[in-house]
Amino acid sequence: VQLQASGGGSVQAGGSLRLSCAASGRAFGANIMAWFRQAPGKERDFVAGIARSGGIRFYADSVRGRFTISRDNVKNTGYLQMNSLKPEDTAVYYCAATPRTWSRQSDEYDSWGQGTQVTVSS
Q1: Nearest CA to 21 among 118, 117, 112?
Q2: Exposed (0-12), middle (13-18) or buried (19+): which is 115, by Cβ within 10 Å?
Q3: What pLDDT was estimated at residue 75?
Q4: In contact, 33 and 40? CB cutoff 8 Å
Q5: Using CA of residue 76, residue 83, residue 42, residue 56, what is the dihedral sign?
Q6: DSSP per-residue codes, 32-83
Q7: Residue 54 vs residues 16, 57, 74, 102, 104: alpha-carbon distances, Å
Q8: Biggest distance spanned by C-alpha atoms of the chain
Q9: Digits of tens for pLDDT over the chain (122 positions)?
Q10: What is the pLDDT of residue 109?
Q11: How many Cβ atoms from other residues are within 10 Å of residue 34's Cβ?
Q12: For position 10, what pLDDT does the model report?
């Protein structure tokens, strides 16, 4: 599946952004979907993941309660709603997909979007 992320931007602390991940190619609904982020000089970290049907969701402790992952398998699109943003959320955000079981490890995902920059100022 091919992925394209969008929706990043610059906001002040406390603001909100909604990221989108448009999918094409093999059935989007057959894939676990996740969001990762990478800040300058740091490793790519897991942010959130969602099951194929959307019924089960996983979050990193740092974003739980502030971010919400969702998906629309009819529109072949995934989303990450980010509220109460903090400066430490500043990073390039990537969407990813895998036809295998879900994981917090980036190397378990074989499809990646190009990344979208999120910058949160204090």
Answers
A1: 112
A2: middle
A3: 94
A4: no
A5: negative
A6: EEEEEEE-TTS-EEEEEEE-TTS--EEE-TTTBTTEEEEEETTTTEEEEEE-
A7: 22, 7, 12, 12, 17
A8: 41
A9: 999 999 999 999 999 999 999 999 778 899 999 999 999 999 999 999 999 998 999 999 999 999 999 999 999 999 999 999 999 999 999 999 999 988 999 999 999 999 999 999 99
A10: 95
A11: 26
A12: 98
Amino acid code (one letter) for 99: P
Q: Which residue has 């500043």 as its token pair?
A: 90
| Token output for 95 | 């969407």
Query: Which tokens is 15 given?
Result: 């603001």
